[in-house]
Amino acid sequence: MEQNRQTETGYDTAKDLQPERMILFAADTGDGYDVQKSLAELAELVKTAGGVTVATLIQNREKIAGDLYLGKGKVEELKEMANELQATGVVCDDELSPAQLMNLQDALDIKVLDRTIVILDIFASHAGSYEGKLQVELAQLKFRAARLVGMRDSLSRLGGGIGTRGPGEKKLEIDRRVIRDRISRLKSELREVALRRDEQRKKRTVSRIPVISIVGYTNAGKSTLLNRLTGSEVYAEDQLFATLDPTTRNCKLPGGQQVLFTDTVGFIRKLPHHLIEAFRSTLEEAKYSDVILHVVDASDENWDQNMNTVYETLRMLQIDARSDKPVITVFNKMDLLPQEEKTAGIKDLRADKTVYLSAKTGEGTEELLAVIEDVLRSLKSYIRHTFSYAEAGKTGLIHKYGELLTEEYLEDGIFIEAYVPKTILGSLGLE
Ligand SMILES: Nc1nc2c(ncn2[C@@H]2O[C@H](COP(=O)(O)OP(=O)(O)OP(=O)(O)O)[C@@H](O)[C@H]2O)c(=O)[nH]1
Ligand SMILES: [Mg+2]
Description:
This protein is an alpha/beta fold. Helices cover 38% and strands 20% of the residues. The protein has a six-stranded mixed β-sheet with strand order 6-7-5-8-9-10, sandwiched between helices. It has a four-stranded parallel β-sheet with strand order 2-1-3-4, sandwiched between helices. Strands 11-13-12 form a three-stranded antiparallel β-sheet. Helix 1 packs parallel to helix 4. The longest helix has 32 residues. The protein is elongated and about 95 Å long. The N terminus is likely disordered. Bound molecules: guanosine-5'-triphosphate and magnesium ion.
């Protein structure tokens, strides 16, 4: 898919540039964090942003250096590597401070980026909707404003993302005040979009069709699963953050019940703070759902860490998975696992239900649908009651929102056996 590419500095850069050759680097402070794996993920991010990784460099050190992030000797080594490999830039796996960024740029004399810039860059090029574009711009500006603190003439060195040229004279003219004004305009525009979305949500709530939100690490297969379940053709691609805009599709469960599935932006470790703030209303989709469908790529060797990241991000968004609403964890891409490894040791103790499937082949999706029906039923109460004929309105409610098992017209009233949503028990006088 041809994407409109608008990078950190606002230039359209997709067309004529050679892929940037990047060296990735990180410090290993021995805090138990797997730096090797994190760099592998960073390489995926760089690839998605249109660059190639030509080498990686890790330094073991107890503390991150405040001035250069790495030690002086290591920076020298990085410089030699860059010369040798004709690298056009370096990418740090952590977010660099403005001082680190400038000092490194001085020392290396090539483009210096970090994980946050790369992620912002990807979001910028993948944003499709009006809201998505506003959100990305807001995140970029807030990020830029934060980095402007204490900087004057070195601004031109903040050369934006992969494939991006320096900001140029025009950008230098943008001072903090302009940025601040633009930020408040964007915020008010976003508030309006969010209001409109709230209204849509309310309509959905009134219709009482259960909403199931699909969450998960980026590239876990969320959109592929949505397509599989609802027969739609949402963009799904082997790249990070393919989806940024929430998409809702409806689906009829085998038992006949209508449900809505919502697919949205994926999570990742170290999701930039400004992005979370800007994308809050998008990321919070899950808050307004009845059930959370957590998709995990079981073929990723970091599946358990990724799972934790998703739960942590949900917590950060104040979505208290499980205590609020049921969680169904879907271990996806089972087709990629060798037969003997299937399901062995792969589990999620935090989920209410677990399903193993392949969104690609479709194997296991019937079971998932059955589990969804089961879980939705657990959100309902079983009732057996005879309503007087004067209460016909109540039986109407049951027809509309419940799952009717028996209805008999007797002398003294209407006998009903049904599953009804717990939320309408009050209106039925049965609480
Ligand atoms: N082998 C295999 N590949 C899968 C399966 N499900 C998804 N994929 C592939 O995984 C990649 C990512 O799938 P998406 O559906 O775009 O993943 P996503 O979770 O929506 O990703 P983002 O929107 O980028 O966060 C695509 O290349 C899919 O074809 C599966 O069950 N088996
Ligand atoms: Mg997707």
